[in-house]
# Entry
Amino acid sequence: MLTAQTIAIVKATVPALQAHGEHITRCFYDLLFREHPEVQAFFNQSHQAAGTQQRALADAVLAYAANIDRLEALANAVPRIVQKHAALGVLPEHYPIVGKCLLQAIREVLGSAATEEIIAAWAEAYGALAKIFTAAEETVYRTNERRSGGWRGVRPFVVARRETESEVITSFYLRPQDDRPIPAFEPGQYLTLVLDIDGQSTRRNYSLSCAPNTAGYRISVKREQGGKASNWLHDQATPGTLLNVLPPCGEFVLPPGNERPLVLVTGGVGLTPALSMLHAAASTGRRVDFIHAARNSRTHAFAREVDALVDKHAAVTRLYAYDEPLHEDQPDVVGRLTTQLLAQRLPADRNVDLYLLGPKPFMQQVYRSVLELGVVPARIRYEFFGPLESLEAPAVAAV
Ligand SMILES: Cc1cc2nc3c(=O)[nH]c(=O)nc-3n(C[C@H](O)[C@H](O)[C@H](O)COP(=O)(O)OP(=O)(O)OC[C@H]3O[C@@H](n4cnc5c(N)ncnc54)[C@H](O)[C@@H]3O)c2cc1C
Ligand code: HEM
# Structure
């Protein structure tokens, strides 16, 4: 329980954090990676280079400071962070390391404004937050371990086969090396691979693209230009390759038992979790519209698999849009998913669950359109293949 004085001091530092939040988190990561290289392997360095991870951490710390007297306001933010930490295998012993570097960064950036009193209040507040996270993460680890076929930590899986899905996407079918059962997962969840690439441990998340209750797992990976893990998988992971895998995690999921029409809107490789959701929902008879944007037939993955589900289930429909079709391509739509087009796909009452995933500009455009068409924000779920960002239009800066 935090003292009233700690709460007051932490709240009073919100304006300073607002002004310096990202500077503090940049300084924090520099310190963390310099002084504790052993935790660097948990972080994706391209998210650092893009600044998205610093923003996500700065936003989280700010939200915490601003709501320290009513932590229930953070209820929406905590599960995502907990799932992300648990997916990557963050452990209680990492928290004091992160806490020490965060306090040191606050000291360095705020200078003399960071009095001993402020640092002591933050140390206490950080300890309270770390306790919330470690307890919630332990619950996830225990649940994942205790479910039928479940496990904790890394488990070796064998690449059973690989399948080319498009010019850029390849699927890897994984079975556990011990040939024992594996747990079902929630459609939309992802695995974390712990890869050893050129002697460096590298952790990456990959959505499960198969139906949620198959005998093995399937991930489908896009080869990213200059990307470390995706190129390694495409070039090195062949049948028989062993991969260390952490259990399925994630809260961008399709809860069971919902009857509302489901609209899955994806661009590029963003279709992977939607494919798993499509498999799960189609078998229940739920109305599903699978709307997918790709550059053209060369980059379009899983067309045959989706079409087979459309043919098999009367309640499933689909639409493919190509913005750079090849001469021989015959997509349903040439160009982007406009507001007008989306209006034709949505039921008149707009009473749908809509899941959105793709490149950020694509998601921003679709998000704006569906809001304009009257889908309520609470029914729109979106995911980033990286730290969470906002799809809201940036506020116009005051001059
Ligand atoms: C929840 C979740 C689910 C995901 N599911 C999938 C999925 O189903 N399929 C899929 O393909 N991907 C998925 N991803 C993305 C995946 O985890 C990887 O981020 C992706 O494969 C790229 O990793 P990489 O190691 O190949 O590229 P990275 O090495 O991380 O590089 C990514 C890009 O950044 C550039 N870059 C790297 N380092 C720097 C630097 N220092 N400065 C500037 N630029 C740099 C690279 O050139 C490259 O273009 C998912 C991510 C998340 C978070
Ligand atoms: C109270 C302390 C902490 C807070 C507030 C915090 C907050 C966050 C937030 C907001 C994200 C982004 C989630 C997303 O949207 O994807 C994140 C991701 C992450 N966190 Fe933490 N975190 C804390 C402690 C830790 C600790 C102790 C570790 C251990 C090393 C850690 C490792 C990570 C990693 C590896 C990621 C993913 C980074 C990436 O995508 O590259 N965090 N955290």
In short: The chain has a mean pLDDT of 94. The longest helix spans residues 116-146. The first strand starts at residue 155 and ends at 164. Residues 39, 42-44, 47, 53, 56-57, 60-61, 80-81, 84-85, 88, 90, 94-95, 98, 129-130, 133, 386-388 surround protoporphyrin IX containing FE (ligand 2) (CB under 6 Å).
